[in-house]
Every structure is written in structure tokens, then in C-alpha cells.
Amino acid sequence: MKLKILIIILLNYSILCHADKRIYETDSSGNRKYDKPSYTLTDSGRIYETDSSGNRKYDGENFKIDGKRIYSTDTSGNRLYNKPSHSISNTGQIYEIDSSGNRRYEGQNYRLDGNKILPTDSSGNRQYNKPQFVIK
Is 14 helix (H, G, I), strand (E, B) or coil? Predict the structure, then answer.
């Protein structure tokens, strides 16, 4: 159990401590989908949508990582309380929670697997028909 917690802490630390990272949508084979928007993860924990050229889309989705929570934000970085947030468990499972803090079982879940973000169902089983992401 302590090893899993240590791995998650190291993964989160390595993601947040380096320079900006890009998150790309890929198909089930791992090939990047160039027609889909990507995301940029800054060293301050902000995540914002970028176009295929790497330019920030100010009207796109924005997020902020705060500890083990991922919040939806506006373009200025202010938290949007009317949007669901995500929580990262000690096992690397990322699941959606509502504004009251309750887990939403019908929402899309993900699992951190190295530098990949894999879609899962509410039980943690891998969904191969949903888009996955890779962090570079």
C-alpha cells in the first residue's frame, strides 16, 4: 500500500515539477490524433486546451490541479463551482465528483498508467472504445 502511495506521489511530483508538458489524445494503438485538441500542463498545475499548433485556446477547457483534486476553471484560473471536479485516488484512479464532493459513478473515469491516461468504467476496467491520452 505504501509503495502505491509513493508511486502516485512521485508521478504527480514528476508531472508538476518539469516544464510545460503536453497531453495528446491518442487512439487505442497509441497514435496521436492530430485533429483533436491537446492540453498543456504547466509547472504551476494549470491545464489549458491548445490547438494542434500548440496555441492556447482561450475559449477552451481549463483546469487546475490542487493536491489530489482537478478543478474546472475559467481562463483567469478562478474555480468554477458549478462544474464537476475530478479526484485522483492513491491507486491512480481518476474519477469525477460533483460540487458537493460525492463521487459521480455515471461520469467518465480514468487511470494513470505511466505517462498514459486510460479511460475506465466505474469499476476500474479499461474501456478500449474511448479515447486515451498520453503525456509528453
Answer: helix
Greatest C-alpha distance within the chain: 41
Digit-coded pLDDT (tens) for 63-89: 898 888 989 898 888 998 888 888 988
How would you write 73-120 as a 3-class SS string?
ECCCCCECCCCCEEEECCCCEEEEECCCCCECCCCCEEEEECCEEEEE
Task: Decide: helix, strand or coil at residue 87.
Answer: strand
Element holding 6 (H helix, E strand): helix 2-17
Coil, strand or helix: which one is 65?
strand
- pTM (predicted TM-score): 0.71
- Grid cell listed for 50: 491548445
